[in-house]
Structures are given as C-alpha cells and as structure tokens.
Amino acid sequence: MELQAGDTFGRYELVSWLGRGGMAETWRAQLVGAAGVTKSVLIKKVLPEYADDEAFISMFISEARISATLSHGNVAQVFDFGQVEDEYFLAMEFVDGKPLDKVIKRAKKAGLGALPIPVAVFIAMEMCRGLHYAHSRTDGSGQPLGIVHRDISPDNVLVSYEGQVKIVDFGIAKAQLLRGFKTEPGVVKGKYLFFSPEQARGEEVDARTDVWATAVVLYELLCARLPVEGPPQTVMMKIAEGQIPAPTTLRPDLPKELNALVMQALAPDRERRFESSHAFGDALAEFLHAHYPRFSSLSLANLLRVLFRADLTHEGRELSVPKTFHDEARKWGEPALAKLLDAPSPEQIQTRRMVRAVAKPPPTETTQPDAPTVPSGPSRKVLYGASAAGGLAVAGACLWFLVGSRSPEPVAQPAPVPQTVAVEAPAPKVEPEPPAPSPVQEPELVAEVPATSPAEPESTRSAHPTRKASKPVRAAQHVQAEEPTPAPVVEQPTVVAASAVQEPPPAVPESEPAPKKGVFGLLDSKRQEVQQKVSSLVKTKQQEVQQKVSGLMQSKDYDAALEAANDCAANNPDMPECYLMLGAVHAKLNHPRESTQHYETFLKLAPTDHPRRAKVVEMLGKAGNAG
C-alpha cells in the first residue's frame, strides 16, 4: 500500500517518512489515544516486494519476538507487532536524536575528525550495558536465551539529544529460543567490516562476537577510521589472521591504557577477549572516571546539540547548551572542538548576512537604447540580500513539493514569458559571424536571449569558458548579442531577471524513418528494448531518491536530505531531478545563491516539456524581481 504523511496505518497516524533500508522502511508515527493523548513511535514496515519472502518474514518475526522481551535503558524498546493489509510492521520507541554513523559524519564535517576521547569511551560503555542485558536474558525457567546481536555497527546505535545511547535492530540476532531458525555453518550475516574472526570464518558465535564489534565501533570513534578496510575477501582474511593495527598507530596521543583495552577486545582468539560485554564496559567505565570524572550523559547531550545546532534551529527547536559545558569541553584538549564551540550560531550568521546585505548600496541601472531597464549591481550578492532571504528562500521552501511527489503529474506549459532583457538581439544573418568577447561578467542568475536564426553559432557557444560546447544548454543561459558598433565597457555586471527566461522554440518534428528490415532491423529492435529497460530502472531509482529526500524534508532532517541529494547529483550528473532536489533543500536551508545555481542547472538539463520546468522559471522570476 502506498503511504503518505497523515495516513492512518492500523491504529497509528503517520507523521513523516524517515528512510528506507534494504527490505523495510521506517516512519515516524504517533499512537492517538483517548482524550487526545498521543505517543510518538517509530514504525518499521516490511516493503511490499518482500511480503512474500518467507525467509525474510521469519527473520522479521524473530526480531519482534526477541526485541519485545527486552526492556533496558540502552536498548530501543519494541511496543507492538502486527499486520496491516498483509504487511508486517514493528512499532518501536522513537529516539529523538541521531544514528551514531551520522554523528561520526557530522564530526568530520565540523573539523573534529575523531570524536573526543571521553565521548567515544562513554558511548562504547553504554553500548556494553545494553548488550550485556540482552546477552544475559533468560526464559521463564531461568534458561539463558543466548541472544547475540551479531550486527553491531554505528547505524544500529542511536544517540539522543538527552545523552541516551540505545541499540536497535536485533533483526539477525540469534536466540536458542527460536528453534529451527539457526545460522548454518559457513553462513555469515551482518556487515563484514565489523565481523569478528569467528564470523569471518563462518563459525558459531557467542556474546564475545558483540564485544569485538563494540571494540571496532570504539576504534572508529577514536581514530575516525576502521581498523581494517577494503573488499570483503581482504578484510575477512586480515580479521581472521588478527592483522589489526593498534589505535595508537593512527592516534599517537591516545592513552596507553585505553589502547590496551581496545586491543584486548579485538583479540583474534575469543578466549583472550573480555569474557563479556559487562567486563568490557566496566573496564571502560574505570578509565573514564579516572581520567574524566565530570563526564556524564549530559556532556554527550550537549556535544550532540552543538554538532546539530543548525538542524535544530531549522526545526524551530531551542535546546540550550550551558556555559559550563564549554569550560568542560576545553579541558578535553581538542583544539577543533574549542573552535567549534566558539563558532557563531546559525541565528548570528543569518543576522550578519542580513546586516551586510542591507548595508550594501542599492543597485544602479544600466540601459541601452530601445531596451527596458534592468537592475545591475556590484556583485550577485546584491540580488540575494535581505529581500532574497525572504524571496527565493521562502519561495524555494514552499516549492519543496517539487521533489516530494511520488509520481509527478504532467503540467501544461505556459505561454512564453515576454522578454525583458537589457540587450538588443542581432538582426538575422545568413552567415553568422563570431562576436567579440563581451567585457560583461556573467552573473549567477541570467536570462536566455534566443537568436533570430534557428541555431546558435558555434563560435558564440565556445566564447563562454564555463560552458561545455559539446553539451547543449536548454535553458537559463547567457547569450551574447551582436551589435553593429562595439558596446561600451561596463564596469559592473548586469543582472538579468530570471523571469525573462524563455523556453526555446519547439523542435520541428522530423519525419519518422521507415522501419529497417533484416538483421539490422532486429538489432535496432533489441537495442530499443534494452534502452527501455534501462530507462525504466533509472526512473525507478529516481523515484526512490525523491521519496527519500521528500521524507527527510518532511521530518526536517535537512542535513540528511542535502546529503542524499548531493549523492544523487554525484552519481547521476545528467539527471535534472537531482538538481531540482538540491535547489529545494538549499532553499529550505535559506541558501539562496546555492539554490539558484542548482535550479538553473536543472533548467539546463531538463527537457522543454518537463512538468516542473515552468514552475521553476516562475519561481526564479519572482526571486529576481524581489532582488
């Protein structure tokens, strides 16, 4: 069933789409009770295409059975399990925070690289507490259940804005209670970069496998990289042989006692490791309290709020960070963290931008005979001053639905917008000659001036160093005009309103060639069939990315939405929808310049009949008029 925010799913109301994994998708939802009482939950729903996969459904049910028995502060609790229209789902505790893998990425982006030592040690210590609770669970008669997570990695650990650390996803956990659902020898599951040597060899695993994986996570938190990296065969061979470099080889400032704890947990022989997650956690706690006695869960919460304060601001939330945390964090000896703490807040940055924009002189007007006047200014920043912050950003924020539609509907193309460009188009010529290079600097937001002749001269296209001559530009491009006399040199660039962008004239339909016969005709038919399949796959992938970005924007996780849109553009540089999403996300983040750049790239790549093209042109026109 196709779901959207606001839909009812069983007894839950869906709030926002959070993400999609290999075989399941997650939603933020709320359980509405009597008298308007609500409870936030996370819905994990099996994707429809895997509803008939018996092996996966068995694994999903096993996760529900195992997780429903767990109730610990360091384990995300499962509240409900069931079916809605033949689709299995889990209703789990909603953790208000970020997955640990995103915390690692944000720390690198902020210049920290590795996490501060006490933060990394505290997170690993809390993971050990939750894992030991699961490992030591027993049934009604007191018999151990033998639960082993076997998939410990940063994306299965959640960190809340209150400083809580919770383990999720026991989907491939092994419990002796589940007879008949047992891993066969030689079969390995989970993420190979976090495999223990016994997992790499396909042997039976126990709780000490989770000790190994926790140590790998701690290693990455301390050193900003994994102990072993590479293809699966290379990684598993090095792990099985115990070829693990000590953390001090990557981080020489690491205390020797902490280095020894990590290496003990990463011993290839499980008999030499910590005997349990509880023992490993106690050793980490002893180190933490000896070296950082003031550190607590509130310290972790404050660091998370500092790292993600831009996200919280865009969500309209204010989670305070006390001055005492600044003093505590400086004692950790992390220069990059001290710099981050001294950085201005998003509100201060926006205020400074507004002040600088208002302080700039108003743009002057440059006119030519027989042409309407258009504003010009010292730089393109003038166009995006205070008015742009409330123009393009607001318009773009309202336009996020451009990427939110699950199945875009065709939109009728409007009539061409009257041209308002401050240059004079050349008279028609039979033999177009290359014009002299224009001294006017090309601004960021420009209009297209179609030549009178059907095709633009090749010399005109090559005059622009930023444009690839081999790739046709379809919209929002700057075309130089030929004049009978040289134009006077203009010291400042002329900014042309985006509302002047016109769609190129429709191409004259060519006569359809006669169908080929024989072997060549058969080859053409096969080629067309392959092209149709490839096109269908691309369209499916495009829709998946659009759904992901739309869901992240609805949940106000703009950082993740920007990352997904950037990945789309990096992997598909010729796909216009990727730049449409980038424009929408940057507009939501109040980045008018970046938003306009991506919207213009979309116009260059999108075909003339693209259903979103007219809307983008209209929006850029409004932003240009506001500037």
Automatic annotation (TrEMBL):
It holds the Pfam family Pkinase. GO terms for molecular function: ATP binding; protein serine/threonine kinase activity. Keywords: ATP-binding, Kinase, Nucleotide-binding, TPR repeat, Transferase. CDD domains: STKc_PknB_like (cd14014). It comes from the Bacteria. ATP binds at K45. Residues 357-378, 447-490 are annotated as: Disordered. Residues 12-288 form the Protein kinase domain. TPR repeats lie at residues 576-609. The keyword ATP-binding applies. The keyword RNA-binding does not apply. This is Protein kinase. It comes from Corallococcus exiguus. The lineage of its organism: Bacteria, Pseudomonadati, Myxococcota, Myxococcia, Myxococcales.
